[in-house]
Amino acid sequence: MAHRDFAARRSSNNKKKNKKKNTNVLIFLALFIVLVFVVGLYLLKNQNSKVSMQQAITQQEKAQPKSVLPNRPEEVWSYIKALETRTVPVDNNPASVEQNMRLTEEQRQVLIQIERDQKAADEARKLAEQQRIEDATRTQSKKTEDMKNTEAEIVKSESIKKQDSQKIESEKKVEQIKTVNNVRDSKKFGLQCGAFKNRAQAENLQGRLQMTGLNAQIQTNGEWNRVRVASFDTRELAVQAQSRAKTVTDCVVIGM
Question: Region Disordered: what ranges (predicted)?
């Protein structure tokens, strides 16, 4: 089997790769230089064309002459003088004047129709105004009548309410009088002639009152013995009994 030198083979391969890389770099640099050269030429060409164009425009402007405006024309007003010397033709012939003032039949009919239309319009306006005034007057009178009716109804209702209130008040008064009379009728009156702690004194006074014809009674409440005369239907009867009891002692009218 033949012996192979792998180390020498590897070094030769590396040299080939380095040569290939260097070649690529040189090619890239050459292309870049060519591109820069082309761009520079293009820019120089454009700049030269702009400069030459500007010079041509400047020379053309110098070669053209400047425009000069014409002088202002003088205005001549001739109609003022013509008006000063102009004469108006006047026809003083009476026949011509009458002929000019005379109207044709058609014009006369038109004027008559215009006058009729004007009169009709005036009459219609007057009628409308009169109708409006009548309507306003009628409306106002109706409002006034309604107000009067309303006021009359209000017065009538107030009078009815017043009568009702008076009637109710009178009925209340009658009821109060009846109640007072009923109370008076149901209430009894009597006389209290004395109050004693000693019952013997109370019995003594009772006997003396009975001797005058009064219905004297003793009412005991606790330690007090009250001598009373009962009972009377009205205060007048109690007052009469009080005057009778004055011969014995002073009594007081009380309600029972």
Answer: 123-171
